Structure formats: structure tokens, C-alpha cells
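ok trying this again, last paste got cut off
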Amino acid sequence: MAQGPVCSGCQRIITDRFLLRVTDNLWHEQCVRCAECGDELTDSCFLRDQKLYCRRDYAE
């Protein structure tokens, strides 16, 4: 059985044509979300304690 890379957000195999690499992990584009508010992180993200945050929540 062929395996692909596993998404760090949902833990499912990534079969999409494109994937994102953030903090040395692979993600589906739609799974890159703020750990605090859940907003999708499209342009930038911030890392604290191995969790991704939007600019607003990272600043708090």
C-alpha cells in the first residue's frame, strides 16, 4: 500500500498536488490554522511552543 506524507494538522495522508512545509512539518493548505482562534493562516504564521498562531494571537 503506497503511503504519502502525513499532515501535521489532521494526521491524514496528503494526496493534494501542493502541500505546505511549516516548522519542518508538512501540512494540507487548509490545515494551517491558528492554535488559539482557528483562523486559516494564509500569508504568515508565528510559532510558539511548537504551535502556530496568527499575528494577533501571537502578540497577546
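PB: full thing came through this time. The chain is about 10% helix and 20% strand.
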